[in-house]
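Course assignment 3, question 2. Fill in each field.
Student: A.L.
Task: Predict the tertiary structure for the chain below.
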Amino acid sequence: MELTVSTIVITFAGVFLICFMKGAFGGGFAIVGIPLLSLVMDPVTAGGLLAPLFVAMDLFSLRYWRPSTWSRPDLVLLVSGLVLGIGAGYFLFRLLDHRAIAIVMAAVTLAFVALWFLRGGEVVLRPRSSSKAIAAGLTSGITTMVAHSGGPPLAMYLLPLGLSKQVYAGTTSLFFTVGNLLKAVPWLALSRPQGSAWILMAICLPAIPAGVWLGWRLHARLDQRQMYRACYGLLVVTALKLLWDGVSGYLA
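Answer field:
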């Protein structure tokens, strides 16, 4: 990968946007920054580049999303499924059609948001379910490993629980901290970044504290209702991006 000015600027902007989302919403919406990186590198290279940066982002984010913001009963079940999902995702990465996975995940996510919209934007609260939590963690682990899109399955489980905005953000932040730590080594094995990629990672490091801090400031300004509306809106953006990736892949 050649380190041109445009490559550096666009990658820095993409990393900053991902960090901003982590600061504002806790995690799960990294895919919104990936289109920027796709302008200057292929998806596998982007995955290898982001894998170590995700770990740095998550560790810095925990400065704001401390243990008091974690929903421990949910995390125990979610992380159990996540570990299995990342392991399965590593082997499925080479076997499954990524385009089909993207389209299916997009369709499920859009259906989930459509139901919320038809209810007038009101969240229908549901009790915790061990089986649903494990299934959400498993699906999130597979999709985050295959397409850096683990946010929708997790959101579809957590949003109906009616958690406070701080607990929602803190729970997603810790969930993806564990997930990104687990998937860093497999992604580096799949991508094997070269010297220029490591230099680019180092250049992007200053974007992490700035992006997370600015996102956290936005989070503080949002009330509970605004926070949930923003999360549903981001789910639509994520789903449309997945749908585009899947369909354009078949048309290429």
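Instructor remarks: The chain has a mean pLDDT of 85. The CA atoms of residues 48 and 187 lie 6 Å apart.
Grade: pending
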